[in-house]
Amino acid sequence: MNFVLSALANLQTNGSTGRFNFLQKNREYETLKIEVDRDDEGWLRCRELAEKAMQVGDLLTAERMWIAALRETAFFEETDIRLVMTLDRISDFYRATRNYDQCEVYCVKALMVMEKRTGTRIHRNIANCLNDLAEVYYAKGQYELAEPLCLEVLSVYQKLSHRNNADIGFAIANLAMLYHASGKHELAEVYYLWTIRHQIEVLNASCEALAILLDNYKNMRARMNQEGTLSGRDLWSRTHHDLQPYSFESWS
User: Fold this and answer.
1) What is the DSSP letter of 35?
2) What's the pLDDT score for residue 65?
3) Using CA of residue 209, residue 210, residue 215, residue 217, what is the dihedral sign?
4) CA dist., res. 188 & res. 226, Å (int)
5) How many CB atoms lie within 10 A of CB 41?
6) Consecutive sets of 10 residues in the chain, 252 residues long: mean pLDDT of each?
7) Count of beta carbons in the 10 Å neighbourhood of residue 136
8) What is the rounded CA–CA span in Å between residue 59 and residue 99?
9) How far from chain centre, in Å, is Cα 55?
């Protein structure tokens, strides 16, 4: 199951708003081949033990090993990709265990290091860090803090990508779900229609993914007591009609 379909399925399963589903990570270190030397053998060992512990569900050992790996980065350069990776993995651990306060701490640190590393906010890895932090705020119900981060993520992808890039579609969907969850239904409607059109005209998404998007939109409309009995076919027609003002031409 691809990310969009998986994310939307979670939203539908968990109710009319559900859990916020963010972009898949695309960190530059995911495919990075790290050369082993005397300085990073300890870090590599701690990382390996932490990942093995996570695989078998030994959360206490995983936490201890990731923190140990972070200590091993004390002598690395402050922009070393291994430091970013460690901070990110620790935040992932706390996200998985729903310790969102600790997750926020490490997301903020990862963002700060990545900003120093890239020297700009207009970078794909910065967008990923912003996304991670926004997800934490969403999980904590701090929608007002998540919103500007999500808007910045969309802005970054618009500047970096052609309008048919999948990342843009995911960012729009995130904003739709954020506004849906926070009760800003008029804004949510704009972004739902936006992402549905993006799925239809740009990404050629599967019928199942579109059906879930349309169902989520219909559920929100029902909560607003507006056209709650519309059929999927009617909503499909409405999507094409209502989105005319929201042109993608300016994105090219």
Assistant:
1) P
2) 95
3) positive
4) 14
5) 11
6) 35 42 52 50 92 93 94 90 92 93 96 94 93 94 96 93 77 89 89 84 65 80 64 52 44 36
7) 25
8) 12
9) 22
| pTM score, whole prediction | 0.77
Using the 8-state DSSP alphabet, how is residue 160 labeled? H
What pLDDT sits at residue 222? 82
pLDDT at 226 (0 to 100): 58
Identity (one letter) of the amino acid at 185?
H
- Rounded Cα distance, 72 and 66, in Å: 10
Indicate the length of the chain as a whole number.
252
User: Which stretches of the chain are DSSP H helices?
Assistant: 3-13, 41-55, 59-72, 81-96, 100-118, 124-139, 143-160, 166-181, 185-197, 207-223, 232-242
The CA radius of gyration of the chain, in Å to the nearest whole number, is 20
Domain 3-39+76-251 fold = 1.25.40
Q: And the tokens for 83?
A: 């430091």
- Among residues 98, 72, 100, which one has the least CA distance to residue 85? 72
User: Are the beta carbons of 27 and 117 closer than 8 angstroms?
Assistant: no
Local structure of residue 85 (DSSP, 8 states)? H
**Pair 224, 185: CB distance under 8 Å:** yes
Domain boundaries, the chain: 3-39+76-251
Residue 15, pLDDT score: 40
Q: Which pLDDT does position 186 carry in this prediction? A: 87
